[in-house]
Amino acid sequence: MNSRNVGNTPDRSVQGKHTKHSIPEDAKQLIRDHIESVPKIDSHYCRADTTRQYMESSLNIAKLYKLYVNLMQEKGKTPVKQSLYSHIFCTDYNIYFQRPKKDRCDLCELVKLNEMEETQLDEQTKINYEKHMVEKKTCRQERNLDRESKERAVLCFDLQNVLTCPKAEVSKFFYKSKLSVYNLTAHLSLSKQVYCAVWAEHLIGRTGNDITSALYRILNQVVEDHPSLTELILWCDSCVPQNRNSIISFAITRLLWEGQTNLKTITIKYSVPGHSCVQEIDATHSTIERVLDKTEYYSPLSLIRILLKVNTHRPYKITQMQLKDFMNFQTVSSLHRYDKSTVL
């Protein structure tokens, strides 16, 4: 305890006299180097329009800081406080840990934001929003009619968020580049059967042509399981690069042209952007993610084995895509004019 001057003379004020301890730039750079050493994953949606990246969902700032401390101890250097590590992570980078499970509607978010700030929308935005709500209601009514019908065969499909492997609680794995694995999931209303087409990035990517090839493989599996089908309805979201394009239209047309099935009609229906109507697929993806969060796997093959055990009552039908399964629908579809339609 410091001795104090006992008397009538007040002590000198020390307000504003404390010394600021600045952190060396080298220490800050070590934090940045550590953050940048952890592999990132691009956003599932709007990859061309955003710089936001994602780390594995099993990570968080506390775990990252613990890995950073261990690394500094191995190098014989003193780690900074977690508050500084968190500050640099949040201010210098646009990184999130949890990947979005579904896209959000830009227009609805704009209206919600204006309501929170109690600001008025311009007239054109109001008109667009009213039209958007009518389309949303109509889309849901149409989806409910298809869902409630026991005579219609409805196949909804969507690409799951990117899965990475290996996945294990091993600190060294967090610094290694991961192999991206893609899973196109489909659900058939007649049998409540789930179909999955799985492939890894070493084989091919996730362009519109790749996803169409995976859907084409699933459609053949559905026809093989239900050879008496004459009409099929497809539901998916309105993502243009993946679903709403001429590539998938040509692939479905080819399936009908081949004449090897009893299918006469395939109708594609798209959800209103930002409002998913494929809840069966969303529920399937959530179930898969819950199982994977509690499991370790080290290769695409071990991941497929886990997917086979997700639903023990009605096991998923998994197709491990081969290179020969990916066909060049895009080149042929470019020869057709899908922007012009004929009114019958």
What does this 3D model show about the protein?
It contains 10 helices and 10 strands. The longest helix is centred in the middle third of the chain and has 26 residues, at 123-148. α6 (208-225) runs parallel beside α7 (246-258). The strands form 2 sheets. Strands 4, 5, 6, 7, 8, 9 and 10 form a 7-stranded mixed β-sheet that branches. The chain has a 3-stranded mixed β-sheet with strand order 1-2-3, with no helix packed on it. The protein has helices at residues 25-37, 61-75, 82-92, 106-117, 123-148, 208-225, 246-258, 279-293, 300-307, 329-333; strands at 41-42, 53-54, 95-96, 154-159, 163-165, 179-188, 193-200, 231-236, 265-270, 317-320. It folds into 2 domains: 25-96, no CATH class; 149-333, Ribonuclease H-like superfamily/Ribonuclease H (Nucleotidyltransferase, domain 5, 2-Layer Sandwich), CATH 3.30.420.10. Residues 45-49 have low confidence and may be disordered. The radius of gyration is 27 Å and the shape is globular. It is an alpha/beta fold and 344 residues long.
| Protein structure class | alpha/beta
**Percentage of residues assigned to helices:** 25-40%
Largest sheet: 7 strands, mixed
Mean pLDDT: 84
Q: What is the distance, rounded to the nearest whole angstrom, between the alpha carbons of the first and last residues?
A: 95 Å
Rg (CA only): 27 Å
CATH topology of the largest domain: Nucleotidyltransferase, domain 5
Query: Number of helical runs?
Result: 10
Outline, from the CA principal axes?
globular
Question: Could you say what the CATH architecture of the largest domain is?
Answer: 2-Layer Sandwich
Domain module tally: 2
Low-confidence stretches: 45-49
Strand content: 5-15%
- The CATH homologous superfamily of the largest domain corresponds to Ribonuclease H-like superfamily/Ribonuclease H
DSSP strand tally: 10
